[in-house]
Amino acid sequence: MNKVALKIPEKGSPDSFAERADAYYQKRPQLMALLQELYNSYVSLADRYCQALAKNHNHRRYSSPIPPLNYNENGNCDEEEYSGEIIDSDAESSLSFQPSFPPSTQDKFDIEMIVADLVIRNVDYDLVLDELNLVERQNNESSRKIELQKSLLDVMESERLVLLNENARLGYKVATLMEENKAVSSESLFMKRKVAELAGCILKMREDHRVCMLSRKIEDLRGQIYGLEKRNKEYYDQLVKHEEEKTRRSKSMKVKGEVNMKYCFKVPEDVVAGITRSFSFGNLKKGGGEQKVNANAEVKKKVPKLWDRVKKFDIFFCGPNFNTVYC
């Protein structure tokens, strides 16, 4: 029998469950090999014991009724197949009718077989228990994962509900915004119409203002024309008075050895008539007609203007003659 040495765990070795399970799985083949060797040695000892009993009782040797145990990597125990008991044709047939072992020997043999079977059953139970623990641990991990997935699913479901509520709220908000947009568009059209109307009113007001300003300018021009006409009339009256005064002075002067200024400042009567016609604005206002205007134009052409003659000194026909008597 080959001895299998098992290492005793040191004091400083890890003591956690996972590390112990890992160490057990690493040493499991050695343990199974040790159990197989023990079982085979036990079977061989039992066979030898049976042979010794047979020799003592003058019986032929029987083959071992307990098959050897072979361990596979899958953890299953396979018994070697035998073709059956080795029986000699004549001798075995004769021995088959002989009585079996005594009751005491048979009981011992049965007890040993029961012990061996019990050992095998215990080993199988330990193996099955280990597999059951492994499966239970995997089941616990799976259940924990399932619980985590359930909690994750609950969280995702709650998020989905929140998103659905948010989507509904956003849809309602979009609908309200669309209605507001329609109202704003209609209001913008109304405002455009109002703006067009106001623009027309502004143009009208500008035209009215322009007309008003033009009318005011016309009134101002009329007032200025009236003032000019009034001033012209005053100037004409002053001129007539001045001429009358000159004529009176010229009549009162004496002609002795002096130049008569009557003939120097005498204005022809046709010139005076032309001046009176040119300053008669009342006839123009009353609409005297184009004939009077044409007559005045002809008179102006025939007779030189009074003011031009005054400027050119054409009316002074004689030179100055100073007399200290009349100064």
Q: Can you put this structure into words, describing what you see?
A:
It holds the Pfam family KIP1. The longest helix has 150 residues. The chain is 72% helix and 2% strand. It folds into two domains: 137 residues, no CATH class; 101 residues, no CATH class. A two-stranded antiparallel sheet has the order 1-2. With 327 residues, it is mainly α. Helix 1 runs antiparallel to helix 3.
In short:
By secondary structure, this protein is an all-alpha fold.
Lay out the secondary structure.
Blueprint: H1 17-56, E1 69-71, E2 77-79, H2 89-95, H3 103-252, H4 261-264, H5 269-278, H6 281-286, H7 290-302, H8 306-312
Helix pairs in contact: 1-3
InterPro entries: NAB (IPR011684), NET_actin-binding_domain (IPR051861)
Keywords: Coiled coil
GO molecular function: actin binding
Tally of DSSP β-strands: 2
Total domains: 2
User: Judging from the principal axes of the Cα atoms, what is the shape?
Assistant: rod-shaped
Low-confidence stretches: 1-11, 58-103, 255-265, 279-293, 313-327
Quaternary class: single chain
Distance between the termini: 189 Å
Strand percentage: under 5%
Count of discrete alpha- or pi-helical segments spanning 4 or more residues = 8
* Helix proportion range: over 70%
The average pLDDT score comes to: 69
Describe the strand arrangement of the main beta sheet, using strand numbers.
Answer: 1-2
Taking all Cα atoms into account, the compactness measure Rg is: 79 Å
Based on helices, strands and strand pairing, what is the structural class?
Answer: mainly alpha
Sheet having the most strands: 2 strands, antiparallel
Sketch the topology as an H/E string, one letter per element.
Answer: HEEHHHHHHH
